[in-house]
Amino acid sequence: MKNRDSAFFRLITTPVHTKGDELLIKISELNQGRKTDDVFLSDPNYFSALPGSPFAYWVNNQIIGLFSKLPSLQKAGYSIQIGASSHSDFRFLRLTWEIPRFYKITSGKWINFAKGGEYSPYYYDIHLCINWNNKAQEIKEFISKQYPYLNGETDWLLHPESSYFRPGLTWPRRTNRFSVRCLPSNCIFADKGPAAFCQNDNPDDLLALLAVMNSSSFHNLVRILVAGTELAQSFEVGLIQQIPIPLNLSTAKKELAQYAYQAFEIIRQPYLDDETTNIFCFPGLIRTVHIGSSLNDQMNVIQQQENEARSKLLKLQQRINSLVEDLYGIPNLSGDGGIINGPSDENADGESETTFSASKPTSLVSDLVMWCIGVAFGRWDVRLSHNKELLPKIPGPFDPLPELSPGMLQTIENKNISSRNGPKEYPLRIPWLGILVDDKGHVDDIEQRIREVLLYVWQKNHESIEQEICQFLEVRSLRLFIQKPNLFFAFHLKRYSKSRRVAPIYWPLSTPSGSYTLWLYYHRLNDQTLYTCVNDFVDPKLKQVSEEAARLRLKKGRSAADEKELERLTDFERELRDFREELLRVAKFWKPNLNDGVEITAAPLWKLFQYKPWQKRLKETWQKLEAGEYDWAHLAYSIWPERVREKCKTDKSLAIAHDLEELYVEPEKPLKKGKPKKRAADEETEGWFDED
Fold first, then answer.
1. Which terminal residue of the chain, N or C, has fewer Cβ atoms less than 10 Å from its own Cβ?
2. What pLDDT score was predicted for residue 114?
3. Which of 14-23, 160-169, 343-352 is predicted least confidently?
4. Cα 369 from Cα 165, distance rounded (Å)
C-alpha cells in the first residue's frame, strides 16, 4: 500500500443489516496483510484526471491515463448528438405498422424514429415513427402551448440542429448495459436514443466505430465515467463524447468494419423472422420449410442455426475485443487480469452476452398461424415460401428503411391499394374488403383460409402440419385456437405491443359468447366496413339462423335434442341481432382515419372485443375521447366537430392537426411595460433647468 493510497471497500451486495460487521472484518483482514477482491487501494488524486472526476476507485492508473493521452470521440472529429422529444408520445408517435406504408409514401408525415429500446448491439429494428410533418410544426405548437414560458423557443426539445436523416450509430440512453447499433439514413433520433456521426458518413468508418463502441474496452471506459454498478446507467451525450478513442484506428478500419458487418448480419437474422419489423421476410418455420418434413424437424434446424450463430457471434466479439484492446495499447483493458476490478457486463467466458434467446416452440407455431392469417388477408406474399428469389433486396446497415417490408405482397400493400389489383395468377383468393369470419362452411371462413395457406406451403403434407400445429398449441383444432380470445388474440396483442403502445391489426369483433366472430384487417378499414359486415355477413347469417329456428318451432314431436338445438338457435339469434344493432350504431359515426393509430380507431368498438384486458383499455380510451382528451384525433373531429373547431380557435396545434389553421386566432400580446408617456406640458418645460 503506497503512502497516498486510500482503502475502498465494496459492499454493495452485502445486506444492509450486516454491512457494519462486514466492513470491520475487511478492515481487520487488510491490517493483517490480507486483501480480498472487494477491497481496493487507490490514490484519490488520480480521480481528477477523469472527466467529471467520478469516484472510480477500482480503476488502474494506467487506464486513467488514456483520458489524457488519447483524443476523445468529440476531439477526434466524431459528432455525438441528442435528438428530439415529442412530450406527448401517445399523440405524436406510432408503431410502424399502425401507419400503412402507402400513408407514409403519399403524405411524408410519418418518419422513422429511433427512440432507444432494449439492449441489442449492432442491430435493432426501428419500430416507431414520429409526426414530423412540415418540420414538426404540430409538435412545436403543442410544446409552445404546454410551456408558454418558452416563448415559442422549442429548439432545446426538438434539436433541429441535430443531423437528422444522416446515417450514423445510436444507442439507448438509459439501460443497464451499453449497446450501440446502426442508425439508417432518413430517420429522426430521440433524446432517449442519442446518435454518433462520422464527418463523411462513410459506411466503413461507421462500422469500424460501431465495432469499437461495442468492444469490452470501450464499455469499460464508459463504466468508469458512470461509476458503473449493476443498476441502469444513463449514457448521456456529454459522457459518451468524452470517451477516448485510439489514435491509430485507421490501421484496423477495414478489419473492424468487416467484423462489425458480420455481427450486424447475425444479430439482424431474428428480426427477418419477426413480422412486426421493417425487414420481415417470413417466419422461422417458413424460412426452413421442406416439403415432407415435420414442424419438429424444422424447429431442430432453427435451433441448430441459432447455436451456430451464437458461436460465430461470440468468436467475432472476441476478435473485436482483442483488436480494439491492441489499438488502445493497454493489455487486459477488456477487463480480465485485475486492471479494472469494478462491476462487469461480462459472462463467465469474459465476453459480453449476446441478444440470442432460444426460440420457444409455441411462439414459433403461433407466429406461423399469425403469418397464415396475414397471408389470407393479402398482407404477406405466400409465394416466398417456395421462391426466395422473389424477395426484394434487404437494406444494408445504413440504407433507408424499406417502404414495404420484404415479405409483403408488394403489389397490394402500397399506395395503389384502392385499385385492388393483385399479381397475375396469384395462388390464393384475397378478401379485398379486409373481412374474414369464424363460420364453418362460409367462403371467407378464417380457418379454411388458413388451411389454404398450409396447403400451398406444405402441399400434400398440409394435414399432418395442421395436426402438429394443434399439438404444439394444445388445442383440438385451429378454430378453437382462433376462437378463444385468451389464445390467439392474446398472443397477437402481445406481439403487436411495443414502447407502451398496444396496436393489434387483426381485430376479432364478437358476440358476447363468442358464438360469431368477424375478423377485420386494420389496414383495410374505411367508413363502409361496418356496413359491409352487416350486409354481407351478419344479415345472411341471421337469416339462416332465423329460418333454422323457425323450422324447428314448426316441427311436430320435437325430441330433447331438438329442444336443446332450438334453445341454442334462439340464443344465437338474439346475440346476432344485438351484434348487428351495435355494429350499425357505431357505423353511423365511425370514420376511421389510420393516422390516429390502432387504439383510437378501435375505441368506439370496445363492446365488441371479448378479450377483457383489451376491452377495458379501449373503454377507457373511448371515455377519454368523449371527455375531449384526444381532440387532436381525426375521429374526435368526425364525431364532435363543433367542440373541436371551438378548441382550434385557441390551440394552434389542434388547428394544424385538423387542417383548420384559418380558425386559429393569435392572442393579443400584452403591452410591454416602459416609461410613462410624457405629457405635452412636460415636453414644453423639459430642459429648462439643464445646466450648461
1. C
2. 97
3. 343-352
4. 36
User: In the chain, what is the straight-line distance between the N-terminal and C-terminal CA atoms, in Å?
Assistant: 81
Q: How far apart are CA 264 and CA 124, in angstroms?
A: 9
pLDDT at residue 137 in the model: 95
Sorted by sequence, the CB contacts under 8 Å of residue 48 that are 6+ apart come out as none
Pick the closest to residue 382 from 408, 346, 402 (CA basis): 408
| Contacts with 558 (C-beta within 8 Å, 6 or more apart), sequence order | 552, 566
Beta strands in 11-63 (DSSP E): 39-42
Query: What are residue 233's DSSP bridge partners?
Result: 175
CA-closest candidate to residue 65, choices 218, 211, 221: 221
Query: Residue 49 has what pLDDT?
Result: 64
For cell 473485436, what's the residue? 320
Distance CA 443, CA 412 (A): 21
> Residues 219, 179: contact at Cβ < 8 Å?
no
CA dihedral 411, 416, 421, 423 (to 10 degrees): -10
Beta-ladder partners of 6? 42
DSSP 8-class letter at 340: B
pLDDT confidence of residue 175: 83
Q: Is 328 helix (H, G, I), strand (E, B) or coil?
A: helix
Instruction: List 508's β-bridge partners, or say none.
Output: 519
Which among 381, 361, 358, 373 is positioned nearest to 295, based on CA atoms?
361
Output DSSP code: residue 408. Answer: B
Q: On the CB side of 616, how many CA atoms lie within 13 Å of its CA?
A: 2
Residue where the block lists cell 420484404: 406
Contact between residue 163 and residue 79 where contact means Cβ atoms under 8 Å apart: yes
